[in-house]
């Protein structure tokens, strides 16, 4: 009931135009960095390992890690419950009710104009472990988070590939545990899960679809024409060769789950995980990422685009400020990339970059 009530009011606010009172101002694009621009910095604290989503005129930034040195946490990477929203028209940030739990690597989805958090990692016993209670839906009318059913342990993880299909959310792969000491556990999974927002229940898809061809975390995801794409990412980063970085594109037709996952021909030019991504039409843009052996920062600066129709990749204008460990959200052909890490592992930034592919060449 509560869910329906929120939906109706959100729909009404949208209809009467509360979310778009001002026409967007034109952007000043630098001729030296075609396609790229910066907008208003993230307030309060730079952020990484956060998640992000578009809802109702705003880009939401949820959870993640901040640089807050505490006596028992000398490295300073503190998990946060902070949530903020950036209004696309006014270019201003506002505070949103905090998540009930501090999480990083959260799985976010928007279904029926509502924001869902469907798992993530929280600090447990000194390490980052999948939190099966971290499942919430946001009601923008009351600015509150409501608990959803706990996530069954086999479906609980952070850093999954997530897409929304009708009233269901599909999650593929992810990370069950990331220990914060050298030689600790880094537990990548290949599990595929389905969360039904109408019944608040979790399920396995049919057997053919229930496992990725190989485990993935810190991976890109897109849903285009009912096909779920899972691009790049990594597996077992602390033990596999090359940090487990991968260049694959896996695809699953959500209207034909029995057909199972397939491996596409197109291979990402630069295998990497921790990338930001967003689909603009039938092009999946991927940005940055972690594990670059060529530079001291360990961060990739590449912008690489997967064209679904031709099953091939192309390379576009590099990121002016290379980042890893943040999500992107797409609205009206622009890709919004708030924050991220400017250094491998930990180095959060408050810079908020926007990429507009139409100002660059495909
Ligand atoms: C955005 O800001 C960062 C940090 O100052 C800078 O490195 C980058 O070049 C800027 N991007 C553009 C498009 O000016
Ligand atoms: C989740 O909630 C249950 C019931 O309150 C509790 O026993 C469990 O410790 C919680 N799990 C985490 C990771 O906080
Ligand atoms: C990843 O780790 C799992 C569990 O230890 C193992 O079964 C799998 O072979 C590993 N895969 C790679 C590519 O390292
Ligand atoms: C991007 O990174 C590569 C190293 O991975 C470097 O050679 C290149 O100069 C960088 N490009 C820009 C525009 O900074
Ligand atoms: C964290 O903040 C401290 C204190 O301001 C600063 O010295 C340190 O460089 C910051 N660390 C990172 C990774 O940004």
UniProtKB/TrEMBL annotation:
<dbReference type="InterPro" id="IPR015915">
    <property type="entry name" value="Kelch-typ_b-propeller"/>
</dbReference>
<dbReference type="InterPro" id="IPR006652">
    <property type="entry name" value="Kelch_1"/>
</dbReference>
<keyword id="KW-0732">Signal</keyword>
<dbReference type="InterPro" id="IPR001736">
    <property type="entry name" value="PLipase_D/transphosphatidylase"/>
</dbReference>
<feature type="signal peptide">
    <location>
        <begin position="1"/>
        <end position="21"/>
    </location>
</feature>
<dbReference type="GO" id="GO:0003824">
    <property type="term" value="F:catalytic activity"/>
</dbReference>
<dbReference type="Pfam" id="PF24681">
    <property type="entry name" value="Kelch_KLHDC2_KLHL20_DRC7"/>
</dbReference>
<protein>
    <recommendedName>
        <fullName>PLD phosphodiesterase domain-containing protein</fullName>
    </recommendedName>
</protein>
<feature type="domain" description="PLD phosphodiesterase">
    <location>
        <begin position="100"/>
        <end position="127"/>
    </location>
</feature>
């Amino acid at each position: 009931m509560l869910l329906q009530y929120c939906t109706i009011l959100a729909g009404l606010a949208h209809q009467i135009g509360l979310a778009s009172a001002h026409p967007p101002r034109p952007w000043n694009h630098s001729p030296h960095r075609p396609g790229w621009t910066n907008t208003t910095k993230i307030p309060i604290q730079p952020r990484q390992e956060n998640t992000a989503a578009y809802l109702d005129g705003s880009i939401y930034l949820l959870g993640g890690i901040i640089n807050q040195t505490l006596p028992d946490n000398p490295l300073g990477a503190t998990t946060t419950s902070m949530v903020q929203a950036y209004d696309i028209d006014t270019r201003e940030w506002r505070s949103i009710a905090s998540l009930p739990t501090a999480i990083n690597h959260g799985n976010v989805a928007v279904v029926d104009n509502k924001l869902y958090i469907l798992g993530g990692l929280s600090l447990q016993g000194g390490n980052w472990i999948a939190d099966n209670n971290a499942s919430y839906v946001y009601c923008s009318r009351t600015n509150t988070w409501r608990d959803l059913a706990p996530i069954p342990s086999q479906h609980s993880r952070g850093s999954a590939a997530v897409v929304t299909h009708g009233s269901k959310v599909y999650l593929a792969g992810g990370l069950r545990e990331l220990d914060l000491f050298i030689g600790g556990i880094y537990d990548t999974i290949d599990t595929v899960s389905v969360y039904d927002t109408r019944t608040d229940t979790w399920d396995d898809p049919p057997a053919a679809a229930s496992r990725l061809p190989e485990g993935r975390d810190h991976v890109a995801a897109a849903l285009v024409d009912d096909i779920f794409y899972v691009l790049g990412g990594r597996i077992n980063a602390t033990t596999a060769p090359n940090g487990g970085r991968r260049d694959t594109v896996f695809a699953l037709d959500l209207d034909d789950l029995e057909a199972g996952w397939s491996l596409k021909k197109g291979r990402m030019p630069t295998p990497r995980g921790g990338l930001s991504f967003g689909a603009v039409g039938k092009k999946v843009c991927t940005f940055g990422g972690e594990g670059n052996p060529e530079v001291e920062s360990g961060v990739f600066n590449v912008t690489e685009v997967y064209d679904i129709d031709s099953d091939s990749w192309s390379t576009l204008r590099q990121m002016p400020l290379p980042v890893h460990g943040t999500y992107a959200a797409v609205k009206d052909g622009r890709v919004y990339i708030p924050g991220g890490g400017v250094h491998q592992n930990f180095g959060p930034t408050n810079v908020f970059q926007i990429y507009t592919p139409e100002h660059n060449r495909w």
